[in-house]
Amino acid sequence: MLLTKNSDGFEKSFDTLGLDEPIMRALERLKFTRPTEIQQKAIPLIMTGRDVVACAKTGTGKTFAFLIPLISRLKSHSGTVGTRSLILAPTRELSLQILEALKEIGRFTDLRYTLIVGGYDYEGQFESIATNPDVIIATPGRLMEILAQTQFSLKKVEYLVFDEADLLFEMGFEEQITNVLKAVSAQRQTLLFSATIPQQLTDFAAAGLNDYRLLRLDTEYKMPDKATLHFLLCRTSEKVAVLTLVLQRFVKGKTILFCPTKQTVEYLIHLLPLLEIHCIGIYGQLDQKARKELLDEFKESKGNSVMVVTDLAARGLDLSDVRNVINFGFPQNHKMFVHRCGRTARAGLSGTVWSILDITEKSYLGDIAFNLDRELVNKVPQTTDTVEAKDELGYQYFDPMRAYYGRVGYSSLSEFV
Ligand code: UDP
Ligand code: MG
Prior knowledge:
By secondary structure, the chain is an alpha/beta fold. It has helices at 21-30, 37-47, 62-74, 92-105, 122-129, 140-149, 165-170, 174-183, 239-250, 262-274, 288-300, 334-341, 362-371, and strands spanning 52-55, 85-88, 113-116, 135-138, 159-163, 189-194, 213-216, 227-233, 254-258, 279-282, 305-309, 322-328, 351-357, 406-408. Bound molecules: uridine-5'-diphosphate and magnesium ion.
């Protein structure tokens, strides 16, 4: 098998991890030969049976880092009644994506999986838990509803995963999570994964971790290596103009456009088509069928396409060919910024993030500049006629007619204008 060098200088392939044949076959089918760094470190550690808290930046293969040891542990369908593994995730879309990944990696086993998430009918979910699934992937709210209405027990759960763990513990799911923890086996192995695990793990004490190991590859502020970040400062009244200019002139391929509210999503999905910018919009209040259909439409789209979303789509979604992320305004905190940016430049690919900010959002930029793992450069294209407005910190204002901008990264807007 071909071996390539990892960033830590070691040459490794999946062969060295001692995985069962059905997993190796599935990996081969997926054409994955070399584990990512988090997979290389987390898989053997998890396979020792210890609790693990793992932090690695977005798009680095955390899903398989917890799914491969899961398959390795459960091996095949158990005739004994009782689900042995539970994976909790904050959103329906992410749960569905984890299920799809599990189907791939478990393809050559007879393990059974069930999805328990809001928005789908109860009937189907009652029926599916009656098939004695080995693994349940769930959002906490719906899982608790189903447990309350049935005799279904989680007592046999021995492998418990919290994906996007920090968000799950922040989202007001505290009560549900406490109930889940009461319902699962006391002897379970517990795993927490996210790109943003805080330095202090105090909140996670609630996860009932036992003698855990912390695996931290990256800090909370780590952006994907191949993401180029542009910060466009503009007047509030020109934000939409800047957005349309960016969409019409600068971005190519798939773009995820993040908005602060559902109202902004609705506004933009009406406005942008008038400017001949094709887009779809997804936000929490849409029914689940529409959410899934729209996401599928975006996944399958070719050429330039835009998905306008709220932060619902900021966590975990893995759409490999998203070339651009646009922040129409800054999110509520730096953590959300990291997750939004992480929808592009995944799995070693490159991507560009455009953040369109007005004066009221400049303090956020300061926070990012202070904590980011690279220098914030405010480089103006050399042509003198483009320099018009500067603020007291020296950031240029972005004039939609001309193009002034501050940036982090290495490409230059002057390439486009
Ligand atoms: N992936 C990969 N090599 C691997 C495992 C995964 O290229 O050995 C891909 C995977 O198919 C996915 C991408 O890496 O498209 C990112 O994975 P994931 O969503 O697990 O990343 P996370 O953000 O959770 O770290
Ligand atoms: Mg993930």
